[in-house]
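Extended Data, panel c. Modelled sequence:
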Amino acid sequence: MRGRKVNKRKIFNDPVYGFVTIPNELIFDLVEHQSFQRLRRIKQLGLTHLVYPGALHTRFQHSLGAMHLMSKAVSELRFKGHDITDDEFLGVTTAILLHDIGHGPYSHALEHSIVDNVDHETISRIFMNMLNEEFDGKLDIAIDIFNNTYSKGFLHKLVSGQFDMDRLDYLKRDSFFSGVSEGTVNYERLLSMINVVDDDLVIEAKGIYSVEKFITARRLMYWQVYLHKTVLVAEYTIMKVLKRAKELRMKGVNLFATPAFDFFLRNRISADDFKNNNEVIQNFSKLDDYDISTSMKVWTNHDDLILSTLCSSIINRKLFKIEIQKEPFESTIVDNIKKQTMSKYGLSDKEADYFVINDLTSNYTYKPGSNKIGILQNDGLVVDIAIASDQLNISMLDKPTTKYFLSYPKEL
């Protein structure tokens, strides 16, 4: 007699963790869904591969990795006696699997250019609600955990917090694929040290040095990878590309674009449109990096000087010059560069803003407060890592590091 074949218990080989198991039939069906499969076509680190050639991994890989870490975290908490039901395990695993399902092409570029004030978390919630209808309410607990409305608050902390499975995976994975070893974290050690006290996720005292390494690794990855000056100019350039393309398309200029991409170029889209207009989310679900990159290749030959120049700078990696400093640039310097740009390219003052970018970027290494990383001391007290640490002066890292940058054509 043949045994019953279980089709949905799949195993995949992840380069970071090795063999990873899909833990549930619902998880398998969600992974197979076209809305999730879209994440295969969205790079995790946008244009970072222009600096680190290996950084070509996807949101799909990251989401599966975070799901794997969540399974390990729940197993550890259960081993330590915390009651997490099978439904809650499925809910928290589903929540982390789908946490990035609302991401648009090229990281956050689309959020800041062709749609109005719509972040990927909002779009993720819309996708999750749609999938919940399709799967007959099986995502109810996952949505409550994601929205932090579930009765066990520590489950949300595993999904979204200063120490969560999202951050733990992306630090490990981004370090692996970029080759930046300073970002490496000992995820196994950290996961073996997690616990729950008063419905809050904590790290046991013997894991404090691993937490310090985790915080330091995050700081190094931000300034060495995520906010690397060349990555910065590339990502701001692609935002300018999308903004210029939308400006032209809204004026009726004919632009090559896929149907889904063209929909966003010729329409003003707000958060309410995502929530209330099914056509918006349907078009978004077809949008990925390939729509943008294919269009940019064609636009390198467009008659519009601004669009073609910006696209060529990305496609051919002939990026603009960028200067970074700790203080704002003097207005006279910016004005002088802008005037030179207007003269060289025959641009108006407004058009020159596409070529001269004067902005700032900032990042918190660690933010003490309600969303802290708590250290469970041997006497049972929970202390913020900023206070508990005796090796790392985290209190020096609790203010945002701000850097000002000025980008403009190299020819000037």
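The mean pLDDT is 93. This feature is highlighted in the accompanying rendering.
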